[in-house]
Write a structure and sequence with these properties.
heterodimer, A: 560 residues, elongated, B: alpha+beta, 56% helix, 13% strand
């Protein structure tokens, strides 16, 4: 139950608060409203009186903050008398014009134009702008580039566009054309065979890749991955995958998969061709002066260590099975056979290097520990110490990889924040520009002229225009500052090949594609719904206000 | 010359002032007479005062009650308001035949 006097108390408090924030020239008015409260009949009427008065004072406080310097003036003609409008003040106009010019000047910088374009990518999800690849936007520019490299018969250029083309058939055609022009680019089959493993050319690609680079484990991993995909509908997810590495996955796999993994295990090296790909990308970026990060980066940078998706996991499973077979030999007393198996796992781990992610070092560590144990039994303490050291190193590698992976899963902290700031800035810039344009249009329509002297904006219009102008400058500055470091990363990669911070750029771009307010791609649909709901409500409110204002301000016979 | 746009609310307030040009009026009294809420009335009063057409004064009505802010038109205000009303009326008269459906 609300006490009867509570609304009046709130009314007094509200007006006192409004008087506190009111500019000096309205203090008397505020105190006048407050003194009148003593004479307003009814507590709720007093509250309504107070809300109206507080609103007036608050409006003046805001206007004084945005447009300082309103002064008492005298009038000499009736035309100036009750007009709500004021002659457009030169200072205000100059400030607005300066802000607009400053914002436009930002657009002269290519980095800023790029930043602005990236800030708009988030809306592709909301407006359902088609995008066939994570990092790819089909644009007239990219189509023109495709035509250009084909005309130039530029093999490297063909590879570049092939790996970015949204149409699989076209992508494959371009890649094969590139290899025909330059057989040294056969390694590109290692990339497209993973992307398009269902194509009938798959076997030919793998075969040519094996001939091109017979010592490489990659073609075998690609075959194993295809077998995984082909057999996926017929098998359940193994417990080991869910619980972490426990029992080997090999029990569930076909002989073909076993054979492919055995071949990979016996290979002399692993080359994912990622370095060649990055080198090729750099050359093409320089050759065709491409500096748009969405055009420059492609999905291969988001691969795990440049390997097909399952290879790291497959490798660790297979290594685990070898390790277990070694342990079985050891139990049967076949020490030489066991050592051979353990060494094979250790060697395979070394060959895989960082491509083994955090799974393989774990198996590798166990292999070293088995070897250390056997060395101790042989009283070879020196060798045992060496294996123990290598086991510790493998353990450290595993922890480092796991920590990095967890960091990536959590999302780049700085990149995420920068992307959020960039998206908000882009939004602010668009909103401010629209607001400014609406204000300008309203002033021109009401003035009926483009001449500055005949423009008489309402105080509120002037304040909104000023807000829009300042918002556009603020949005421009924030947009530039939040994107500039990433433009530098890209430029450094293109000019010097420094790819140390490319993952940051990839994370930033990935975050930039998610609409502001969405946590991830799963909540994009909800954000889109919220957006269109907000637009609908805003339109309805605008129409209601317009109707209300129309009836409120229409001439009445009694008024005259 | 551009005709000043007078809102019906402003006209209502001015009418009250013109009725008794020399009398000091209270804000709440004006609000009741015109039917305008404080959020509409005070901006009108403030604008009139800003153009030196309205003068304000604090008056003490009775002991123990805070002084009240009172308002009335300045001589300039009265003169300008009357001339404006005259112009409004003549304009209205000129338009009336058309509204009634006849042709002048």
């Amino acid at each position: 139950m609300i006490p009867a006097a509570a609304p009046r108390s709130v009314a007094i408090l509200l007006l006192r608060l409004a008087i506190w924030i009111a500019p000096n020239d309205t203090l008397d008015w505020g105190r006048g409203m407050l003194s009148e409260l003593n004479h307003v009949e009814g507590n709720w009427s007093a509250l309504i009186w107070s809300i109206g008065g507080a609103g007036v004072l608050a409006k003046h406080a805001i206007l004084a903050a945005i447009l300082p310097g309103s002064q008492r003036r005298s009038v000499s003609s009736a035309s100036e008398l009750f007009d709500k409008e004021l002659p457009m003040r030169k200072t205000t106009l100059a400030v607005i014009a300066s802000c607009v010019v400053a914002s436009l000047l930002f657009f002269l910088a290519p980095v800023f134009r790029q930043a602005f374009a990236i800030s708009l990518v988030q809306w592709h999800q909301v407006f359902h702008v088609p995008s066939n690849s994570f990092f790819y936007r089909p644009t007239p520019y990219s189509e023109a580039l495709t035509r250009k490299v084909e005309q130039n018969r530029d093999a490297e250029g063909l590879v570049y566009v092939a790996l970015r083309h949204p149409n699989p058939d076209e992508s494959v055609r371009l890649a094969e054309e590139a290899v025909q022009l330059d057989p040294n680019l056969t390694w590109v089959y290692g990339v497209i065979a993973v992307q398009y493993s269902s194509f009938p050319q798959f076997d030919r690609w793998v075969s040519e890749l094996e001939k091109y680079d017979p010592q490489n484990a990659l073609p075998h991993f690609i075959v194993a991955e295809k077998i995984d995909f082909d057999e996926a509908p017929h098998k359940t997810i193994p417990d080991a995958f869910i619980k972490g590495i426990g029992s080997g996955r090999e029990d569930h796999e076909s002989p073909a998969w076993q054979s492919a993994m055995a071949a990979a295990f016996q290979s002399q090296k692993l080359d994912t061709y990622l370095d060649r790909l990055k080198g090729l990308d750099r050359r093409v970026l320089l050759r065709y002066h491409i500096d748009d990060p969405f055009q420059a980066l492609t999905d291969e940078y988001s691969w795990w260590y440049g390997l097909p998706t399952h290879s790291a996991w497959d490798s660790s499973c297979y290594a685990k099975s070898i390790l277990e077979s070694g342990a079985a030999l050891e139990a049967r007393g076949d020490r030489a056979g066991a050592i051979e198996k353990y060494l094979a796992v250790a060697r395979f781990g070394q060959m895989m290097g960082p491509a083994g992610a955090f799974w393989l070092p774990r198996v590798q560590q166990q292999a070293f520990l088995h070897l250390a144990s056997l060395s101790e039994k042989d009283a070879n303490n020196e060798r045992a110490a060496l294996y123990t050291l290598l086991a510790d190193q493998a353990d450290q590698t595993q922890k480092t990889e796991l920590s990095q992976l967890r960091g990536e899963m959590r999302g780049g902290g700085v990149s995420g924040w920068n992307a959020a700031v960039m998206k908000a800035s882009g939004l602010l810039l668009v909103f401010s520009t629209v607001l400014l344009l609406i204000c300008a249009l309203a002033v021109i329509v009401r003035g009926g002229s483009f001449r500055l002297s005949s423009l008489h904006p309402h105080y509120l219009t002037l304040a909104l225009g000023m807000g829009g102008a300042m918002g556009s400058v603020l949005g421009s500055v924030m947009l530039y500052v939040s994107y500039w470091p990433y433009a530098e990363i890209l430029q450094r990669f293109i000019n010097t090949g420094d790819e140390s911070r490319i993952p940051d750029l990839a994370a930033f771009l990935s975050d930039a594609t998610i609409p502001l307010g969405a946590q991830d791609f799963r909540s994009v649909r909800q954000v889109a719904l919220d957006f269109w709901f907000a637009v609908t409500v805003l339109c309805a409110v605008t129409v209601l206000i317009a109707v209300f204002r129309h009836f409120q301000t229409r001439p009445r016979a009694s008024a005259a | 010359m551009k005709t000043p746009r007078l809102s019906p609310q402003t006209l209502r307030v001015l009418e009250r002032f013109v009725e008794r040009p020399t009398a000091w009026r209270y804000g709440y009294e004006l609000s009741r007479e015109t039917g305008l809420k404080s959020g509409t009335l005070y901006p009108i009063l403030m604008r009139l005062a800003k153009f030196s057409l309205l003068e304000t004064k604090w008056v003490t009505t009775e002991d123990g009650v805070p002084p009240r802010h009172t308002y009335r038109l300045t001589p300039n205000g009265v003169e300008l308001v009357r001339s404006t009303f005259a112009a409004e009326r003549s304009a209205l008269k000129a338009r009336r035949p058309a509204f009634s459906g006849g042709r002048a």
